[in-house]
Amino acid sequence: MKPFQPVYVPIGVPTFHLESAEKLFHDSAELLTKCSAYTKVPEKMLLSIDDLKIYLEDCQPDLIILQNLTFANAAYASEVLHRFSCPIILWTLREPVIDGGRLRLNSLTGAYSAGNAMMMFGQGFEYVFGSPNEEPVQKKLAAVYHAAALKKQLSQVRLAQIGHTPEGFGFGRALDLEMLKTFGVTVISAEARELIAKAQSYILEDCASQKKEVIGRTRGLEMLPEKNQVDFVKMYRAYQEYVEENHISILATRCWPDFFVSYGTPVCSVLALLNDHGVAAGCEGDAYGALSMYIGMQLSGKAVFFGDPVSMDETENTVTYWHCGTAACSLAREDTGAAIGVHCNRKIGPTMEFGCKPAKNATIFRIGRKADGSFRIFLASGEALDKPKQFLGTSTVIRMHGDASKLVHDSVQDGWEPHFVVVYDDAKEELRVLAHMLRLEICEYDK
Question: Looking at the chain, which residues constitute the CATH 3.20.14 domain(s)?
Fold first, then answer.
């Protein structure tokens, strides 16, 4: 894949204060190249339509930063819009001096002209107001760069659905054309029995490297029956090879009852290990939950938690998210490490058994669907508390920034799916921007 290509388009006219504009041009270019070394920057300010046309001729942007250095009429924005359909952020510069004298830039009026043109073209866009040295501007631009790069990346991603969602879990089932159209993600499918057969074809000696990794990453494997230890390691190799051979970045796999009944060993801990290798691996066949995991992992640069909201405490203003043992080993508390146990209902192992480590900033996120089939995203934020395991399996306790009771009541009444992703970082702004770029409804629950 070609590198992510942002293109800086600084427009204006020569009848304003060009000394002020020139300084802001260079300061802006410096900031944008810090956001990405691949940012394309013109050699000079684009102060005529002819200058703009020449500059745009050899551009292939994945993101356009359209900045009014000075006022420029709608013809400038229109020249950009009829050529490209990639994400755009419109940047208005703060007027440098207010002294009762000359209007130096009139960037804001130019922004209204550009914004009106984009509305008429049906082009969604991000917007930022301020000078290059202002922290809110820097944060907004960084979020837009990150989200636009992820949008491009999604078009190269392959998601594997292993088996079907269990009965009553159809909310996670993805249609390949819808996934491709909305997110750019390619879906491929396989049956759970294919992975089971693959695992059964190995002998333990085939899986020496997988066994070594499991012993190094986890605690307590030796407490399980030998058959479950061996079958777990063999299944881990089967999934690893399937992911590598098919270039998979996201995995949504059926788990119960097949792996308990037909194989005799759960797949939970296999998914935990894959998540630590950067593969977004979700259980119960939830493709949109797994896609949400992938997005959270890319924005935070680390593993995320996937689970159900199972408990709410009004006095602590907390919601506990839990699942039966798929959390990445890297999320485990230091005092327990990535402990292994048996499934809470089936009493077969291995599953992961620990409380997750604390984090000052956490974002709760999910891509969901409405009754009409359209997509939306859930957003909330809080702090992951330093709490031990709450129930058999893996869990994390989030003290919400908003009202936890209201969040639970409203999100249940709004019909959200029961699986959520906890991102161990503040990723809300990037997720807002990405949702705008993908034309998804944003539902925030921090009030």
Answer: 158-444
Give the whole-angstrom CA distance, residue 64 versus residue 326. 39
pLDDT of residue 444: 97
Please tell me the pTM assigned to this model.
0.95
CATH 3.40.50.10940 segments of the chain:
6-154
Is the pLDDT at 292 greater than 80? The verdict is yes
User: What stretches of 277-385 show up as alpha helix (H) in DSSP?
Assistant: 287-300
| 427, amino acid identity | A
What CATH number is given for 158-444 in this structure?
Answer: 3.20.14
pLDDT of 157-180, one tens digit each?
999 999 888 877 888 888 899 999
- The DSSP line for 220-286 is -GGGS-HHHHHHHHHHHHHHHHHHHHTT-SEEEE--TTHIIIIISS-SHHHHHHHHHTT-EEESTT-
CATH T-level fold of 6-154: Rossmann fold (3.40.50)
**How would you classify residue 176: left for phi > 0, otherwise alpha for psi between -120 and 50, otherwise beta?**
alpha
